Amino acid sequence: MESLKYLDDETPWANRSVMGESFERYRQLMRDALVSTEIILFAVNPKMSNPPKAYVEADPDFWAPKPK
Predict the structure, then answer these.
(1) What is the span of the domain harbouring residue 66?
(2) Residues 6+ apart with CB under 8 A from 15
(3) DSSP 64
(4) Which of 29, 30, 33, 44 sits in a 20 to 30 Å window from 10, CA-based?
């Protein structure tokens, strides 16, 4: 992700190309149905986390890096 600018776009991601002719109906439905939306970004720091053993086993380089 180069920046968070894509979140400011009226139609983020590729909804228009994926939905084709149904896109305008989708936009109207969203205008009528949604009061507000919110996007929350989280950062995961392995030093401040206590993940389950399965997480550590799945990606030990991230969750339990060896000291240099």
Answers:
(1) 1-68
(2) 23, 26
(3) S
(4) 44
**Residues with Cβ within 8 Å of residue 12, at least 6 apart in sequence:** 6
Interior angle at CA 45, CA 43 and CA 51, nearest 5: 110
Query: d(Cα 61, Cα 54) in Å, to the nearest integer?
Result: 13
Contact 65, 46 (CB under 8 A): yes
- Residue 5, pLDDT > 60, answer yes
Does residue 2 have a pLDDT over 70? Answer: no
In sequence order, the 6+-apart residues with CB closer than 8 A to the CB of 7 are 39
Q: How far is CA 8 from the centre of its chain?
A: 14
What span, in angstroms and rounded, lies between the C-alpha atoms of 60 and 34?
Answer: 41
| Token digits of residue 45 | 């720091």
The tokens describing 15, both together, are 């909804």
Distance CA 26, CA 17 (A): 12
